[in-house]
Amino acid sequence: MTTNTLTAVPVTDAAALTGKRRIAFASYVDENYLPGFLNLLRSLALSNPSVCEDFVVLYDDLRPGSIAKIRALHPRIVLKRVNDTHYDSYKKGDQDNYLVRKAYFILDVFRIREYDTVITLDTDMVVLGDLRELLELREGLAAVPQFFYGQHKLNSGLLVIQREYLSDEFCAKLDKCGRSGDYELDKHDQGILNAVLDGDFVRLDPRYNFVKRRLSGDLPVPDDTAILHFTGRHKPWQGGEAGYSQAEDRWREYELSDADFQAAYLDSSGGLHHDLVVHFGTPHVRRTGDVEVARKVAAAHIAGGDYQDAVDILSSVRIPLDEAWPHEVLGHALMSVSRYEEAKAQLLLATAAPNRAATAYARLAQMAWVHGDNTEALRYATAGITVDPTHRSSRLWAQRAAAVPSQERGSAEDQLAHVAFYMDRQGNAGDKLLPETVRLAFGPDTTSRRWHSVHAHRLFDEAALERVNARRGLVIGGGGLFIPDTMPNGNSAWQWNVPDALLNRIDVPIAVFAVGFNAFDGQSYRANRFRESLLQLVERAAFFGLRNHGSIEKVRAMLPAHLHDKVRFQPCPTTVMRQLVAGWQDPARRDDTILINAAYDRAGLRFGHDYAYFLAQMAQAVRDLGALGEVKCVAHSLDDEKIAFDLRREHGISMPVIPMYDFENDEIRDLYARTKLVIGMRGHAGMIPFGVGTPIISLISHPKMAYFLRDIERPEWGVSVHDRHLAARLVERAKDLLADHTKTVADVHGRQQELWKITEANAADLRVILGS
């Protein structure tokens, strides 16, 4: 088997590779304060319906029934039993008193190591407003200063704690202070924490911890209050306290039964988080049979890639014939699990309603195209355009269905079949370039004289099998074909829509070439179906090469041990482009430009709560990089232009946009070869310029970027989009790479040469396998 001359660095978890912040809420809960905590959870969901982070529950005495009540109100509860033995030597405080115990136990928050940001909430709080500002905080330890006892101390209840405080070093300071007794601890403050911080904390606006005492005399709660804190002995669920009726009325707004709470959440306006929709909507549908809620739950399942769950929830209710939207969503879910005839029936029902018809027709066109029926696909797409001339998806399917297929010029016995994602006009530039580049790795002729195209997204049926078996071999790749949701199907659960039975009847050699495992941080596959298809593919393949060691480790983890050695490293051919293009000449001179690319597909998975921060940092970076060259935006797809629009709107920065999605392959290579530096977020906004000899810096929002940089032993060429000093690091690294540009280009060439050695060795094996 071919060995890798580059060092394979062990792969860590996706969050560590992308630097994406992991955020959690946390509370200490006991049986006495359970009613308050349940109301806190309800208020959090209803006041912030798009927020669903882990919620850590610190406890020592909760009953199973109480835990069940908590879990019913949040889908991501993390239980942590606390142990107070390490506080036994503290010299002050009555540990039988709940308030004192809570003040001690909250210190256990600082022993949490799984998160980058932890937001503590007391169980006598109720959330009334938007907490986005707290979720976007990235530095320090933040709290509201005490209202009664001076601004140098923080108020108890709300803390926003960053990674540097969630450490053994800071816990040691707390323990030392606790054991010395050099602190004050009463019902008003967290004495140990205040003693250690000595006023060194980030001040938050009082509206994030608005204490009840400020409303004495039955004053109304200010409209901008985000968190209302019922400090003092008398809690609303215990009968309350005279003089605070308006405040307690706000608390009681959330004192709802589970059924009423679920209904209230599902009626909320604005963007609902798909995990919360599923968690609250599923029992609601079981109880009521509500079709509209079933549609919302199904749509949430589809957004999360859980297509069978979407089918199940909508199949459990009776959908009236004239309810078009649920029929359309059910049709979408059914086609995503390859139940095409059932999907067609549902989508035809949806075409009866003008507001859903265009989308339904576009899905019908897609299914017809998947089955190879371009005439039917064009008919449906045209119907969609007739209903809505602006409908983008209908236009895309009309263009795809009307495209004239290239005429094959070679004989079958001289051709290789090639499964790939063949990108449409104005599609992603990297994916447009990939099929040709894969073919170049097998020889200079990339035309139909030597290649028979098999679109990965079309159903691989008997006719397709016959055509493939007539060729001398089958190549699958390149690109990130191992991704579950680009074009979902129930046959394989990855991009090639191939049923197991037909895969097993391919009788020519199969070469999987430079495929990537492309799941985002926070994205998962339908494990069983994907594993079964993957296993059969690996068993059948004569060559199985993945484009980075991260993908190799991910795939090997899904395979039995005896197949691990069959999975080998084959770099993406775009990374060795200079070696593949016949007559390649490095540019005699380069433009004085720096090209920036940002990606926006699955933006929530890329940026989390940090997009505003990312944009502000990029604004600063663009300003500073302007001293090094002309900064331009290079858009691999239409959506990539968003960074230019947002920088202009939010920060007043104008940046020329290069529409690379309109470029031909030679133009893509030429542009990237003539610039001095590319700062890119898409995988191929790094690999293509690297492949033509141009220095790169990767904006890491996906593990595959880090995988590639580790494979070439240059991890310093990447910066996480979540990095606390993103702008400064980008500019510093750009200066380093541009300071001696000739030396940097030589380094790129040297790294590329190592990848070329591996590609050449694999090519020798492939010539034997494919008989060429």
Automatic annotation (TrEMBL):
Pfam families: Glyco_transf_8, PS_pyruv_trans. It comes from the Bacteria. Transmembrane segments: none annotated. InterPro entries: Glyco_trans_8, GNT1/Glycosyltrans_8, Nucleotide-diphossugar_trans, Polysacch_pyruvyl_Trfase, TPR-like_helical_dom_sf. Residues 474-700 form the Polysaccharide pyruvyl transferase domain. This is Glycosyltransferase. It comes from Streptomyces justiciae.
